[in-house]
Amino acid sequence: MAEYSHLSEPDPEFAPYVAEMMAIPQIYELEARRKRFDEFVTAMLKKSYTPGFPPDSDYRVVDHQVEVANGVKILVRNLIPVGDKTYPLMVWIHGGGWTSGSIEMDDYQLRAICVELQISILNVEYRLAPEHPHPTSLNDCYSALKWRGLEKRVYHRRPVGGGHLSAVIAHRARDDPFFQGRELTGQILQVPAVLHPNAVPEKYKRELLSYEQNKDAPQLSAESAKWLFRQLGGSPTDAEVSPLLYPSHKGLVPAVIQVCGMDPLRDEALLYERLLKDAGVKTKISVYPGVPHGFNYGFPTFKLAVKWEEDYRAGLRWLLEGAPQ
User: Fold this and answer.
1) 295 burial class (0-12, 13-18, 19+ CB within 10 angstroms)?
2) Number of C-beta neighbours around residue 80 at 10 A
3) Where is the Alpha/beta hydrolase fold-3 domain (predicted)?
4) 51 pLDDT exceeds 70?
5) CA-CA-CA-CA torsion for 6, 7, 9, 12, nearest 10 degrees?
6) Full residue range of the structural domain in which residue 131 is found
7) Model pLDDT for residues 89-136, shown as the tens digit of each residue
8) Which of 69, 100, 182, 263 is most enclosed, with most CB atoms within 10 A?
9) 325 in a domain, yes or no?
């Protein structure tokens, strides 16, 4: 959208790195892409969080094998603060464009948040595309959420965090009788993909320009984003592929949304937030001008990366408090 074009102007701290980042070739060989993703993202996050890593005595780690379909089990890691009280529960869904990543990706970060905010965290190792196409990853995460919901112990706050998958889960849970009496209380959407590029409604085509016009978007180019959707599979117009297309967003739980100015997903995320708000959903949105998708992994000391972490925690606290006006 033209009114958002200023958001693509490089942040002063990031500007010296734009040419270098743009020169990094995109990799479309799956295993090589996964290897680079894991080496870069996981290594950077561990480096960032090691200095403030909480002592082992402050929390417990319990790994579960959760059955999700036809005898198939996936790893689900539960981080629990040490203590006897009932803690809020956040279900966390890692990033990686459906094709990469693992529970190790955010493990250090989540352990720090578990202790800092005194919340229990469920980190889901869902199966990846394209070997496991849509809706496998979605069903895995939803099954893990419902598995935890069957526990007798009641969690008094239950946000779900991630991106595209979290947005869809919020819609599923809204309409699922299973969650009556054990409702979700929030959704955290970080640089979410909420609309397949081949399913843009005519009425929004003038607004959603960043896929083709945001040429200064390193790391996640428009071409790369489209490749990822092809790996995911499913119909572009399926609302569980493109949650922006749900006929109604009314009744969804409050949403915390984080958007990057140089991200080709930028305009759809901004539009999605507007549609949620128009449907009466409480939202708390933060925008980071002049930085690309995933910038906080590669440049954790930048002022905007520090702000990202502060906004993330503030948003989570807001959800845990019941999203007050």
Assistant:
1) buried
2) 16
3) 90-295
4) no
5) 130
6) 2-319
7) 999 999 999 999 999 989 988 999 999 999 999 999 999 999 999 999
8) 263
9) no
